[in-house]
Amino acid sequence: MEYLLSKDDVLKLSYISQKIVDKQLVVGPGGNISIRTDNIMWISPSGFALDQIQEDQWVPVQIHNGQSLHPTLRPSSEIAMHLEIYRNRKDINAIVHTHPPITIGIISTEHNEIPAMFPDFVALVGKVPFIEYVVPCSTELANSVINILQDPAYNALYLKNHGLITLGTNIMQAYYRTEIIENAAKVFWVSKTVGTPRALLEHEIQEILNLEAEKYRQKLLERG
């Protein structure tokens, strides 16, 4: 059976891949992204810079057994992490794993989180937990990741000394969460250099979540 990625999905993956590289959220062949279509995961190939992936180079993988279906290319070395997320989170259809430099710099110190300091972080990202450093591309990493992200309350995860994972019902939503988190890292970094950062208070967070405008925007993003 031949597996084909729709033109629309190819365009979206190519667009997001280029955005990730342009925003310097990865360097070289780093990072990996994927989407789910029915029972197939389409993931970036191993060894490729994201902005160099051609239409026929996205690797289809059967989610239930992890079998790669591309005739020549290997899937990303983080395949186990992506598969575990799709197997345990039926609400998720896209995964973005990047190495955003400011985010990594902050979470790899004594800081285990980046505080919510502006509304977009609250409305579009939410609470982001972390895990300690685990060897990349390993079963141990996949297990550590899914121990946290199996909880539907979380759609992002900090990987100390490694990077960031963000999830979404579609690739745009997953990507926006990455971009917002790196922006939040910049805001926190700047505020630390000039004074004491002020995180939003709990009642302020709830006020943002209750805004009708934010609920409408969430629905649009979930539809892709």
List keywords for this structure.
224 residues, alpha+beta, 7 strands, 14% strand
End-to-end gap:
29 Å
Strand line-up across the major sheet: 3-2-1-4-7-6-5
Number of strands: 7
Task: Give the overall form.
Answer: globular
> Radius of gyration in whole Å, from Cα?
17 Å
- Count of helix runs: 8
Oligomer: single chain
What is the arithmetic mean of pLDDT?
95
Low-pLDDT ranges:
none
Quote the beta fraction: 5-15%
Describe the structure.
- This protein is of the alpha+beta class and 224 residues long.
- The protein is 42% helix and 14% strand.
- The protein has helices at residues 7-22, 79-88, 101-107, 119-124, 139-149, 171-194, 202-209, 212-223; strands at residues 32-37, 40-43, 59-62, 94-98, 130-131, 156-159, 163-168.
- The protein has a seven-stranded mixed sheet with strand order 3-2-1-4-7-6-5, with helices on both faces.
- Helix 3 (101-107) crosses helix 6 (171-194).
- The model has no long low-confidence stretch (mean pLDDT 95).
Topology:
Blueprint: H1 7-22, E1 32-37, E2 40-43, E3 59-62, H2 79-88, E4 94-98, H3 101-107, H4 119-124, E5 130-131, H5 139-149, E6 156-159, E7 163-168, H6 171-194, H7 202-209, H8 212-223
Parallel strand pairs: 5-6
Antiparallel strand pairs: 1-2, 1-4, 2-3, 4-7, 6-7
Helix pairs in contact: 1-6, 2-5, 3-6
Tell me briefly what this model is.
This protein is α+β, with helices and mostly antiparallel strands and 224 residues long. The chain is built from eight helices and seven strands.
